[in-house]
Amino acid sequence: MAHDAGSPLMLAAKPPVESAGEAAAIALMRQGLLHRYSEASSGHAPAAELEQAFARSLGVPYCVGMNSCGSTLFAALHACDLRPGEPVLTSCFTLSPVPGAIVHAGGRPLLVDCTDDYTLDFDDLERKAANSSARILLVSHMRGHLCDMERLTEICSRRGLTLVEDCAHTMGATWNGRPSGTWGLMGCFSLQSYKHVNAGEGGLLVTADADCAARAILLSGSYMFFDTHLARPDLTVFERWRRVTPNCSLRLSNLAAAVALPQLGETLAHRIDAWNTRYAWVATALSGTPHVRLPRKDEKAFRVGSSLQFNFIGLTRADMTAVVAHAQQLGLPLKWFGAEQAKGYTSTWRDWCFGGPDVQLPTAERVIEGLCDLRIPLTLTEDEAARIGTIVRTSVRSVVGV
Ligand SMILES: *Cc1c(COP(=O)(O)O)cnc(C)c1O
């Protein structure tokens, strides 16, 4: 079981596309039916089938596919009648496409602080809701950490806030048994390669609201083909919106849908099991490591452990820099949100000059400083999980000598 101390762990590995997805994609290419509204097509477009399958899996009536989750967030804000320059409350701990979608829709992000467990800080939400004219909360379940959704919906209804969920990391997750993405007026999912279904690019908006669904379909750029959607409202609903909704050409490609479709259902359920097993291996390997804190998870939250976050505690910046460098040398690429320079996907609100005016985010400032992020690839072995624990422990010891 000897490991080469320096051989790097491949945490960004992705499984290949299922053979069913590969075959469906090749068939579409042979027929040239890459566009969902192809007039030559007989039968249903894979994009429409994917929407229907996803809507059914969540138990919602409507689903609209687009070219990215960011586009679905934009469409959701449009369907909320966001006014130019209007503030939108949103999680400060998120990825740049979330504030990006707010700016795209003409709004202004108003960042809400987070907790030590990486979820939305309700006290700060209450404060900022009371002290602003914001009507919309775009909550981002960043890295799959769900806040108390019952309390959140209570706050939203009491404050008159419309809730939209960014579910890029919560496909398959539930709170108290109810799927993430069905708690707000609309839920937005991603099919980008590093989420739970890999189509390269793509997004899925779900809603139980017929007007929101029709507006999103029209906005996505359905020309006069909205009737070909399977998870759509009645055609009479489109009459209210078809002449006033711009075509923003944000369509989901048939090719992406064909690749995504076989990844739902049993395949997704198996992946979720595999991620959660691997998450537990790594969490066990890390537990009890001095200066390392793993987040607490509420019993009502069913999280998909496709990544793991932990916080350094009681270490200086210099210590953390040294620990991360040491781990890197031993083959563990820790993504550290507190690094001087943001890399890859680890940017924070400090890097988004479009993120709105400086706001007070005292907990997030402290949490982000010590936050480390690891992908959990489906290929991770139990040995590798143990090795992650050993590397972090050894690296912390080498720096602080405990
Ligand atoms: C990836 C991601 C998005 C956006 O997804 P795209 O499909 O890339 O637009 C939104 N929110 C979070 C938290 C993400 O990680």
Give an overview in words.
The chain is of the alpha/beta class. The chain contains 13 helices and 14 strands. Helix 7 (210-221) crosses helix 8 (235-241). The longest helix is centred in the C-terminal third of the chain and has 21 residues, at 266-286. The two termini are 26 Å apart. The model has no long low-confidence stretch (mean pLDDT 94). It binds pyridoxal-5'-phosphate. Residues 68-70, 94-95, 97-98, 140, 142, 166, 168-169, 190, 192, 203 line the site of pyridoxal-5'-phosphate.
Secondary structure category? alpha/beta
What is Rg?
A: 22 Å
Strand order of the largest sheet: 1-9-8-5-4-2-3
Low-confidence segments, given as residue ranges, are: none
Largest sheet, strands/sense/barrel: 7 strands, mixed
What small-molecule ligands were found? Answer: pyridoxal-5'-phosphate
Distance between the termini: 26 Å
Helices and strands, in N-to-C order?
Answer: HHEHEHEHEHEEEEEHHHHEEEHEHEH
Helix content: 25-40%
Task: Kindly report the average pLDDT value.
Answer: 94
Oligomeric organization of the protein chains: single chain
Gross morphology is globular
What percent strand? Answer: 5-15%
Number of helices: 13
Total strand count, please?
14
